[in-house]
Give the backbone structure.
Amino acid sequence: MPAAQMKKPEVIPPHIAIIMDGNGRWAARRMLPRSAGHKAGFDNFVSIVRECGKLGVSYLTVYAFSTENWQRDKQEVEYLIRLMNSGMTSFLPEMKKNNIRLKLCGDLSRFDEQSRKMLDNCVETLKDNTGMVLSICLSYGGRQEILQAVNRLLDEGKKNINEEDFRKYLYTADIPDPDLIIRTSGEIRISNFLLWQSAYAEYYFTDVLWPDFNKEELYRAINDYGRRSRRFGK
């Protein structure tokens, strides 16, 4: 279907989560350095955040940097961190204007002090906003999150734990579970993303690489979600 004919979604998932995958392959196909792919990916992240805000999405969670990503080439990791710092600093005024609140999920202690201060400043600047909650998963892993929650419960001497107790120790304790999880780039796996929270999420997989996942592709994913019947095990 041509982009101009793509129907604007009528059913909007309250919480969309995205595994933003394919920046490196996008660059390789264009014979560009991986850094160009990451820059294009960040620019598209900004565009999708804008569009989700316009659509009335209440919560948007993106998988930006996993615990496994620390194992990448040192120069690539350093570039990703510089891109994060400059990109988030530039995007901050627009997020403030558009009433976006920011939440960070992951082990931020692994970032350098300058990066942590930048991220803390973003969260502080946006803390009183009341619109869409943007959660960015940085140095995040689902298994690590679950183990951290278990260890905190053990440290506090908790016994006979129920789901409600457990959720309080997750990074996402104060937001609902995702309704729709989108993964780009043709990979059909969840890659350690929101393992606990995704129990009843609807998944949408697409071959489109992340930098090319534009507004029309977002509409396509949401429209697909709107045609599904969610039974929650019933």
Observations:
- Strands lie at 15-19, 59-66, 101-105, 133-140, 180-183, 202-205.
- The domain at 16-226 is CATH 3.40.1180.10 (Undecaprenyl pyrophosphate synthetase).
- The chain has one domain: 16-226.
